[in-house]
Design brief:
Purple Acid Phosphatase, chain A, domain 2; 6-stranded mixed sheet
Length: 595
C-alpha cells in the first residue's frame, strides 16, 4: 500500500472486515501485500485444439500450448513503448459472459425436428449437446471464479457482464436455471417427469437427432458420434452445483430472451403448448401445429380441427410427455423481473435493472462498476421479428447524453449489448408504434465522438471477434465480441482496462475455457458432462466450429488506444480503495458469503 496513509488503510480494513464479517487481521494482511500476477487457469497457459480422428469424421480434443497476448495498435496508429509493462496499473478487471443458451431440452415448445427440413436454416433448433448446457454454464462460472485475480496485474475481479441469450427458448425455467447457476444455487436440470429424460434424443422416430443411448443409426452417428449409455439420465438427474460468481454481475436482453427462437413473436397457442403434454418429432406436423398459430387467415374449421385433435391426444407426429407448468414462456418484462428473484450475494438485486425499469418498462440501464468505469447496458433486441437488432431513437439519445456526462465526470465508458456491429441492422417495427431505429453506422459514429468510450462488449454471433472503430481524427474504441457457451469453442473472457502511465490505455482480453478436462475421459459427473458437451459441439457438422474460435487477433489481446484524458488524476489511494473493496468481496465469496 503506497497511496493510503496508515490511518486510512487501517480504517478501510476495519470497515470492510465488518461489512463482510471477515477476520480483520487476515484481510489486512491480504490488502497490505502488493498486487501480484496470478498463475490462474486460462488460455494463456493452455488451449484446447482438435486431435486425431476417433471414428469416421469424429475427432477428439486435446490440450495444446497456451497463447500469449497479441498487441494491436490499430487505434494508436503507432507501436507503444516497450516500457509500459513496468508502469501499467489496472483500472478495472471484470468478466464477460454471453450466449449461455441454457436449454430445457425436454420442453414441448422446442423446434428440434425442423433440422430435418433444413439443417442449414434451422441448425440452432437442435444441437447434440442440448441436454448439457447447465453443466457447461456451471463449469464456466468456475472458470471465472478461478481467475478472480488477474494473471496480468494481480488486480481483483470487480464485476461480470452477461450480454444476452441466457435462456434459449424464452422459457421461464431456463431463465431460472441461468440465474441460479450464476448465483451459486444448486439445480437439477430436469423438467416433466422426475429423474427421467423424455425427449427426442431417446426416441426411435427422431432419426435426425443424436441419440446417444440408442443402437439405431442417426445423422450424427453416421458422422461418427459415439453411443454413450447413461448420458441422458445423468444429464437430467444429477445435481449441478455451481460455485457462483464471486462478483456482482449485470445482464442485458438477448434476442432469445425477447422472442421465440430468438426470432418470432409468441401466439397464445404456443404458450399453452409449452406447458402441455405433446412434443413433436416430425417437422411437417410441427410446422402445421406451431406455425398455424401465426396464420392470419386460419379458417374456423381448421382452428376447430386443431383444437379437437389436440384435445383428444391425436396430434400427428408427436408423443405424449409429462406436462410441466414451470416451462411457461416469458412475457417481455419477465426477463427483468426474474433478475430481482436472486441471491443477496454476489448481487446486485436486479443485476443492472432497477425498480425504475420495472415501473417504466425501459429495458436499459447504466451503472458505475467502480469509481473509474461507467457501464451502459442496452437492449438492442427487436420485439417484432428477426434475430438481429437495432437501437431505438429514445435509447440512442439517452446513451449519448449519458456518455457525454460520464466524460465530463472523468469516467471511462463501456457499452454492453447483445448485438454487435455486424448484426445491428434490423428494420422491423410495429405499424401502430413506429419509431426510428438506429443501425450500426450511425451508432458507431456517435460512440467515436467521445474519447471516454473505450469498449463495446457484445455477443450474438457465437464467434470470438475484436474490431477496431477509429474516430474521425484519432482514437476510437474497441468492439469485443465473445464466443458462446453452446457452440464450440464454448469460451468466454475477462476484460482488463490498464493505464500504461505514458498517455496510452490498454484493454487486455483473456479467453477462458470452461473448467472441465480438454479430453473427455468417459465420466458422466457434472465436470465430465461439461467436457463431453465441448467435444460434441466441436464435432457438430451443422455448425462451423473452427471458424468460431476467431484468429489470434480475436482472443488473448492487448488493445491499445490513446488515453481519453489525464489518467494520472486517478490517484494511487483511489485505486487501492477500489481494489481493497473488490478483494474483501472475493474473500467473502471464498468463505461462503458468511456475513
Amino acid at each position: 500500500m503506497s497511496g493510503l496513509s496508515r490511518r486510512a488503510f487501517l480504517g478501510a480494513t476495519a470497515a470492510l472486515a465488518a461489512a463482510w464479517a471477515l477476520p480483520e487481521r487476515a484481510l489486512g494482511t491480504q490488502l497490505f501485500a502488493p498486487l501480484t500476477p496470478a498463475e490462474v487457469p486460462s488460455t494463456l497457459l493452455s488451449t484446447i485444439r482438435f486431435g486425431s480422428i476417433q471414428q469416421k469424421n469424429f475427432r477428439k480434443l486435446i490440450s495444446a500450448a497456451g497463447e500469449p497476448y497479441v498487441a494491436r495498435f490499430d487505434l494508436l496508429g503507432k507501436t507503444a513503448s516497450a516500457s509500459r509493462s513496468s508502469t501499467r496499473r489496472s483500472l478495472f478487471y471484470g468478466g464477460h459472459l454471453s450466449d449461455l443458451h441454457i436449454i430445457d431440452a425436454q420442453s414441448p415448445a422446442r423446434l428440434e425436428p425442423l433440422i430435418a427440413q433444413s439443417h442449414k436454416l434451422w441448425g440452432g433448433a437442435f444441437r447434440p449437446q442440448d441436454t448439457l448446457t447447465t453443466h457447461v454454464a456451471s463449469a464456466m462460472v468456475k472458470s471465472v471464479a478461478d481467475v478472480r485475480v488477474s494473471p496480468l496485474t494481480g488486480a481483483p475481479l470487480a464485476a461480470a457482464f452477461v450480454t444476452g441469450d441466457s435462456a434459449d427458448m424464452l422459457s421461464e425455467l431456463e431463465l431460472r436455471w441461468y440465474i441460479d447457476i450464476l448465483d451459486g444455487k444448486p439445480i437439477t436440470p430436469n423438467s416433466g417427469a422426475k429423474g427421467v429424460y423424455d425427449g427426442v434424443q431417446d426416441w426411435q422416430e427422431a432419426f435426425w437427432a443424436y441419440r446417444p443411448e440408442r443402437s439405431e443409426t442417426d445423422w450424427f452417428k453416421e458422422y461418427g458420434f459415439p453411443e454413450i449409455p447413461g448420458m441422458l439420465e445423468a444429464a437430467v438427474s444429477n445435481q449441478v452445483s455451481s460455485v457462483g460468481l464471486p462478483v456482482p454481475w449485470f445482464a442485458v436482453y438477448g434476442n432469445h430472451d425477447t422472442n421465440y427462437f430468438g426470432t418470432l413473436g409468441v401466439p397464445d397457442a404456443l404458450r399453452s403448448f409449452a406447458v402441455g403434454n405433446k412434443k413433436f418429432f416430425d417437422w411437417p406436423a410441427e410446422v402445421a401445429d406451431y406455425f398455424g398459430g401465426w396464420a392470419a387467415d386460419a379458417s374456423a374449421a381448421g382452428s376447430a380441427l386443431h383444437a379437437l385433435t389436440r384435445g383428444t391426444g391425436a396430434t400427428l407426429g408427436a408423443r405424449t410427455v409429462t406436462a410441466d407448468p414451470a416451462r411457461k414462456l416469458l412475457e417481455q418484462q419477465d426477463f427483468m423481473k426474474a433478475h430481482f428473484e436472486t441471491q443477496k450475494h454476489p448481487g446486485p438485486i436486479g443485476h443492472g435493472f432497477t425498480q425504475e425499469n420495472l415501473t417504466t418498462g425501459k429495458t436499459y440501464w447504466s451503472r458505475d462498476v467502480n469509481p473509474f468505469v461507467r457501464v451502459f447496458g442496452l437492449d438492442t433486441c427487436n420485439q417484432v421479428a428477426g434475430p438481429d437488432g437495432a437501437v431505438s431513437q429514445e435509447q440512442f439519445e439517452w446513451l449519448e447524453q449519458g456518455i457525454a456526462k460520464a466524460q465530463a465526470e472523468g469516467k471511462l465508458v463501456m457499452v454492453l449489448s447483445h448485438h454487435n456491429s455486424f448484426t445491428l441492422e434490423n428494420d422491423a417495427e410495429l405499424a401502430t408504434n413506429p419509431q426510428k431505429l438506429i443501425h450500426a453506422e450511425e451508432f458507431i459514429a456517435m460512440l467515436t465522438k467521445y474519447p471516454a468510450m473505450v469498449a463495446w462488449l457484445n455477443g450474438h454471433t457465437h464467434n470470438n471477434t475484436i474490431t477496431a472503430h477509429r474516430g474521425k481524427n484519432s482514437g476510437g474504441f474497441w468492439e469485443i465480441t465473445t464466443a458462446s457457451c453452446i457452440d464450440f469453442p464454448q469460451q468466454q473472457q475477462t476484460i482488463e482496462i490498464v493505464d500504461n502511465a505514458d498517455g496510452t490505455l490498454s484493454i487486455f482480453t483473456t479467453v477462458l475455457d470452461h473448467a472441465s478436462p480438454a479430453e473427455w475421459n468417459g465420466d458422466l459427473n457434472e465436470q465430465g458432462l461439461a467436457s463431453l458437451s465441448r467435444l460434441l459441439a466441436a464435432n457438430d457438422w451443422i455448425e462451423n466450429p473452427v471458424m468460431r474460435q476467431g484468429s489470434e487477433l480475436d482472443r488473448n489481446t492487448e488493445l491499445l488506444l490513446p488515453a481519453p484524458f489525464d489518467l494520472s488524476k486517478i490517484t494511487p489511494a483511489q485505486l487501492e480503495l477500489a481494489n481493497a473493496a473488490a478483494t474483501a468481496r472475493n474473500m467473502a465469496w471464498q468463505r461462503g458469503w458468511a456475513e
